[in-house]
Amino acid sequence: MLRGKVFKFGDNISTDHIIPGRYAHLRSNLPELAKHVMEDADPTFAGRVRQGDFIVAGNNFGLGSSREHAPLVIKMAGVSAILAKSAARIFFRNAINLGLPILVCDTDKISDGDELEIDFQAGAIRDVTNGRMLTFGRIPEIMLRILDEGGLLPYLKKYGDLSL
Amino acid sequence: MGKTLAEKILSVKSNTDARSGDIVIAQVDLVFLQDTTGPLTVRQFQAAGFKKPAASLKAVLFFDHAAPSPAREMADDHAFLRQFAAESGSQAVAVGEGVCHQIVAESLARPGDLVIGADSHTVMAGGLGAFACGMGSTDVAVALGLGKTWLRVPESVRIKLSGRFPAQVYAKDLILHLIGHLGADGATYKSLEFGGDGLADMAIPERLTVANMAIEAGAKAGLFPSDGATADYLAANGRADDYQPLAPDADATYERTIPVGLGQLEPVVARPHTVDNIVPARELKGMKIQQVFIGTCTNGRLEDIAIAAGILKGKRVNHGTRLLVAPASRGILLSALRAGHIQTLVEAGAILLPPGCGPCLGLHQGVLGAGESCLSTANRNFKGRMGHPDAFVYLGSPATAAATALTGEITDPREVI
What we know:
heterodimer, A: alpha/beta, Aconitase, domain 4, 7-stranded mixed sheet, globular, B: alpha/beta, Aconitase, domain 3, 2 domains, 13 helices, 18% strand
């Protein structure tokens, strides 16, 4: 069970919003890079986010570059899951590969600052602030197994190979 | 039942009867990294316990996104990647050789290949009939070590092209028009597959421009058949033996078909801050532009530079505008020099940048300040993409870019010819 506060964003939050290319020189210095998380979407985010909080967004979250540093700095900021109406393909895979849950659900009724509870076993999201229950879309089996192990590298360590 | 190009290639690579919706494990032919995503890829590769790339594939490292290095941290990353290339026996393509995707097209990708790159514009090799897909560092690291990756076989959207491009309308206008129609997530998880008699009007450089931007509609791949144009291109690059014909089956199943009449297109521009924000260039008349950039994997080829030189020959870039030109590869730079295009552009006031990504991703060589606007031939115009988050990036064809450099405001190229 995850519990945390919502930081709400709109549609088409690109990997440049999440971690702009102008900080590419910091990519081998992750603690320094992570200070700029979500900077071009909300410059106050890095200072306000707390361990366990959620990013909740609209359509096409994470579009653009393949840079895995985008989900990586979000994870480093303490975010425990991303909820979006839809997500870009590469970002979605990258998040799962890092063990960062990304759930596709109708986020319209979730407001900035709401408290959420996510129960992965039950497949349910509860908005504690407004009392609404939400469900999230199915993740392919292979991705669930990767997520269960905490990411692709731990998965590979355990199973030794990719398997369907 | 027939197969799409995606189903055909992934069937061969997974040794299964692959159909859209299936999840397959497929053998990878080429894996490549670049200098901004490469260091994390190498660290993940090492963390997974791999020492050398799988013997079954070709592994290549490129130095293009921040090259020559604009910062000491990047120089350290370059040194780290060079050391890895030497230790692992991977090929390193040095600073100044050009953009990874262009070199992949010129000398590495073959029709029918499965190509995985640590860069979203890896899709560009689809212009040659390769199933080419961008992935993040961990996926690329695992593909590099195992020689294979897992993929969901995408549904395909058929783009049926007919007719011929009107004067001053180019492949860039086609793909921008299509992204405007589909939306920035209109093809997420899908393969865009191009066909129809309009293909006869598109040589490989134009197909590469179109395939390059398939990702801007969210697509996993942008695929062209491999035909006579592909054979000509490979032969011209000394790779005639890499050719194999490849076409979808006539009875393949598509999620939908979108017909596009090339003759009905006009010069268009993507406005800030999303690539699907498309408008005819003529409607932006009067919009002042401080920087014009011609280059990148999308539009830094010889044909693009020739179009710009044709428009700017004997003229001067507007005094309020700077024009930056970056050929996509050393080979292109040399050809453009021999053809006199570089002389023409520099005489017109252009600033020549080394082969590479240039200012496309806001790292160096033309970083925008607050309130500045750039008309670029690149593929992205996201907020903050080229520098300051309060700068504005417009995307257009090389013809639109050259016309804009001439007038200092966004200009339909048909007005200056």
